[in-house]
Amino acid sequence: MTNLPAITSRDPLRRGFVALPWAVACGMLTYAFIAGGYFVTVMSFAMIYAVFVIGLNIFMGTAGQVSFGHNAFAALSGYTSAVLTATYYWEPIAAFAAGLALALLVALVVGWPTLRLKGHYLAMATLAIGLIVYEIATQWQSVTQGYMGISGISPLAFWGYEIVSERGKLFALVLIVLLASLAAARLRASRFGRALAAIAGSEDAARALGIDVAHYKLAAFLVSAAYAALAGSLFVHVVEFVSPEVFGLHMVVLAFTMLYVGGIGTLGGPILGAVIVSLLPEMFRGFKDYQDLFYGAGLIILLIYAPKGLAALSDLLPRKGRA
Amino acid sequence: MTPVLEVRQLSARYGRVEALHEISLSVADGEFVAVLGPNGAGKSTLMRAIMGLIANSGAVSFRGAVLPRQSPDTCVARGVVLVPEGRGIFAPMTVAENLELGAYLLNDADEFERRRTRVFDLFPRLRERLGQIAGSLSGGEQQMLAVGRALMANPKILLLDEPSLGLAPKVTDEILGTLALLNKGGLPIVLVEQKAPLALRLTSRAYLLSVGRLVAEIDPRTITSHDELARYYLS
Amino acid sequence: MTRKLLTALAALAVALSAAPSGAQQVYKIGISAGLTGYAATVDRGWRDGVEIAAAALNAKGGIMGRKIEVITEDNRSEPQEAVTVYRKMISSDKVEIFLSGCVSAGNFAGAPLTVRAQIPMVLCSILPQNPDHVKWAFSTLPPAGFEVATRLEYLKGKTQIKKIGVLHDPSPYAVLQKNIAEKTASNYGLELVGIEQYKQDDADLSVQISKMHAAGASAILKIGLGGTTLTAAKNIKQLGLDMLMLTSIEDLAVFRPVAEVLGDKFFFVASPSQVYDALPDSPMKAEITKFLGPWKAKYQDRDPNWGARGWDAVQITAKAIEQGKSFEGARVRDQLEKITGFQGTTGVYNMSPTVHQGITVNPFLLASIVGGRVIVVK
How would DSSP label each residue in B49-95? Predict the structure, then answer.
C-alpha cells in the first residue's frame, strides 16, 4: 500500500525513475511561475483538481471504495460560495464554511444508507447523487440561474486580503495542495488510516478485528467530501464564474483519469496525476483537430507503461528481488 | 465448572437457505474444544455467527454477559477473538502493520509493547519479518501472523477457523503446538477443523456438526479410529 | 521509455516556446469556439464565417494595412476549457479582439479575463450578465424576443389559433425565449396554455405534447436546437394531432426531414441569409451577396446562418478600427459603441453605450419548406 520504501532504494536508475514525474511536475510549476501566461491558469486548474483527487484517493485508494458522485459535493460547496459571495457579499471564507457544512450534511444523509451497500450498488448510488445535484443546478434557476451561470463571484481572498494576480492565485493553490496532501498523509499514517486500509483489504477481516466498518466508511466518505467541497469553492473563486457543466460528469471522468494516471492509493499520485493529465492536452494543442486523439493516445501509453500510476514508476524496472 | 462461552439456539441463514439450525454449546474456562464436520457443515458460519459477523437469531453470552447481536467490535472488546478462515491477513501491509491492527481497540503504547513481546516469544519468526509485506510471507508464516494478530487483541477466548488449511503437516504441527501451549497457559480455545484426527489429538471435547445441525458431542479419548468417528455421521 | 518521455518533454518545450513572431503587421482575432461538444455545429459555422471575412478583407489589403490573423481555440463547449483558451490567446497569442462563439457560459467565464486585459469581444452568444463585463462585450445576436415575435405575429395575422404551447430545452437562450413568450403572448391575443420543458437528449416528447394538446393548444412554439425538433414532429404525427409546429432558428439541414414529416404544418424562423433566393433586392441582400459568394465557393449548400454572423462580426470590427483609426483595445471598444446604421447580413447594427446587442429591428422571416424548397411565408 505504501510506496515510500521505493524512494529509499539505493539503485540510482530506479531512484531516477521515481523522481522523473516529480521533476516534470515541479519543473512545470516553476516554469508557470517564471513564464506566467496561460500556463498559470492550466496549473491553477491542476492544483484545484489535485485537492479533489487527494480527497477521492482517501475514499477510493485508502479505503478501497468507489464513488462516481463526489462532483456533487464540489457543486454544493461551489454554488454556495458563488451565491453567498456574488449575491449576498459574504466573505469567501465564511461562504466556504457554509458550503462545506452543506456538503457534509448532504454527504452524511446520503452516506448513512448507501455506505451499507457494497461494490456496484455503492458506485451506482453515488453516481445518482452527482446527477441529482447537477439537475438541481440546472433547474433551480431562481438561485443558480441554470445554464446561464453565476458571475461576479469575489476572487480568492483570505481574511480580507484579496489575491488578484494569476501568479498569486497559483501560489496560494500550491500551498493549499501541499497542506491538503500533508493532512492526507498524516491521516493515512494514523489509526484511522490503518483502519481504512484494513477495510480496503477485507471488510470481513477488519470487522473480525473489532473495526466498526460502517462507521469508518462513513467517516472516509465525509473526509473526502470535505476535500471535494474545498475544490469546488476554490474553483468558483479562481474563475469567478460558475455554471453546472463545471461540476458535471466531466469532472468525475477527469478526476478518475488523474487518480489512475498518478497512482491510486499512493501519497503523491493525486498531485502527479493532476499535473500530468492537465499538461497532456496542452502539449498537443498545436495539433488542433487531432488534439483529442493525441491526448487519448498519451493516456493509453501512460496506463500501459505505468499501470500502477506515475507515483509507482519504479515498478517498471525489473526487480532484483525484494529485501 | 461454569462455562465462559455459552451459545443458545443460534440460527443463521444466507438468504432463504438456513445455514445454522438452533445450535447450543458451551466452553468452560481453560478448555480446548474442537468443532468438527465435513465441508459445508456450517462450521465457519457458526464462528461468524458467534462473532456477530452475520445476521443471526439466538443468544451468545460470554462470562455471564449476553453479547449484543451483530456487533463484532463489542465481541473483540470483551475478549472474544476470531482467527478467520483463510487467515484474513492484509497482504499489502507489513507484518508490523498487521499486528498493530490486531490491537486496534488498544490505546496504550506500553501495553501494546507487552503484547507484542509475548507474540514474538511465541512466534520468533514474526520479529524477523517485521518490516516485510505480509503477502510475501510463506503460508505457515501467514498463519502465524494471523494467530499473532489475534493475540494482539488480548483474547480471553480464541476462536480459530481451520488454521491448518493449505499448510504442510510439519507447519501445521508447529502451529497447533503453539495453540496447545497457549491453552496450557489458561486460554480457552475453540478450534474448527475438517481434519478431525488433528484436532482430536489436542482437545478435551469435540462438537460434531452436519448440515447446519449439531449431531453429537464426543470425548476424543473414546475415539480411537477414523471409522468410529464416521459412525456419528451415519447414525 | 526514458527516451519517449524526453521526446514528449521536448515536444512540450517546443509547444510552449512557440512565441508570437513578427507580431507587428498583423491584427489578431481570437475565437473561443466549441468546435467539439454541444455547440459544434453552430460554432464551426461561426468560425468559418469569421475566416471567410478575414480572407476577403486580407485580399483587399487587410484593415488599415494590417493583415488579419485568426486564431481559433476549441473550448469543447465547456466553461472551464474556455477560461484556459481565453488565457492562452490573451497571454501567448496576444490577440487584440475576441470574436467568440455561442457557448454563453464559456464567454461569461472568460469575461473577467478579457476585461482585465482590456480586450473587446464581439460575440455569437448572448451578453454577460455582469455590468462590468457587458462594457467590453458586444453581440451580433438579434434579441431573443425577435424570434418569438416573428412566430406570434404570424399566428395572430394569418391563423385563427388562439391557444398555444411552448416546448423548450433548459439552455439559457431557450429559457430567455420562453420567458418572453410567456410575457408577450397576450399582446398578440394569444393564450399560453402550456409550457413544457425537455432535455436535449430526450428521445420522446409525446407526454409534453399531449399535455399541451389536452390544454387546448393548437400550435407549439418549439425552442431549442438539435434532433429533438424531428422527435417532436414525429410525436405529433404519431399522436395524430392537428397542431402547427413553429421552431426557432436552426441549421436548415435539420429542418428538411422535419418538413417531410409535418408538411405544411411546420414553420421555422429564418435568418435572411437562409432564404436568400426569396429576398427582394435591398442593401441587406447586397451585403449577403458579398458573403455568400466566397461561402458557397468553399462550402456549397452548407447553412449560411451562423457563418453570416461571423462575417458581420469581422465587418463591425473593421469598421470600428477604421472609425477610430486605432487597433488599441479600449479605442476599438469605444468605437464599437458608436456603430450605427451598419448594414450586416443579419440586419442593421445600431450600437450605443447602453445597447451592445446591435440588431434592433427584427430581421427574421417565417419560412417553411415546400417540395424541398425553402419559401418565405408572406
Answer: HHHTSS--EEEEEETTEEPPTT-HHHHHHHTEEEE-TT----TTSBH
Alpha carbon distances (Å) from B139 to B91, B135, B144, B165 = 12, 9, 9, 9
Identify the residue whose cell numbers are 477466548: B157
Task: Report chain B residues whose CB lies below 8 A from the CB of A321.
Answer: none
The model's pLDDT over B105-143, given as tens digits with 9 standing for 90+, comes to 888 888 888 999 999 998 988 888 888 888 888 888 899
Sheet holding C373-376, edge to edge: C191-197, C163-168, C219-223, C244-247, C266-270, C365-370, C373-376
| Best CATH choice for the domain C24-139+297-349 from the list 3.30.479.30, 1.10.101.10, 3.40.50.2300, 3.90.870.40 | 3.40.50.2300
Chains C and A, touching by 3 or more CB pairs within 8 angstroms: yes
User: With an 8 Å Cβ cutoff, is A319 touching chain B?
Assistant: no
Q: Would you say the ipTM is above 0.90?
A: no
- pLDDT by residue (tens digit) across A189-201? 888 898 999 988 8
Cβ atoms of B162 and B192 within 8 Å: the answer is yes
- Domain boundaries in chain C? 24-139+297-349, 144-271+364-376
B neighbours by CB contacts (3+ pairs under 8 Å) = A
Superfamily of C144-271+364-376 according to CATH: Response regulator (3.40.50.2300)
Interface contacts A/C by beta carbons within 8 Å: 110
Residue B181's Cα: distance from chain center in Å?
A: 15
Cβ atoms of C363 and C302 within 8 Å: the answer is no
Highest mean pLDDT among A46-55, C30-39, C80-89, C275-284: A46-55
What's this model's pTM, rounded to 2 decimal places? 0.80
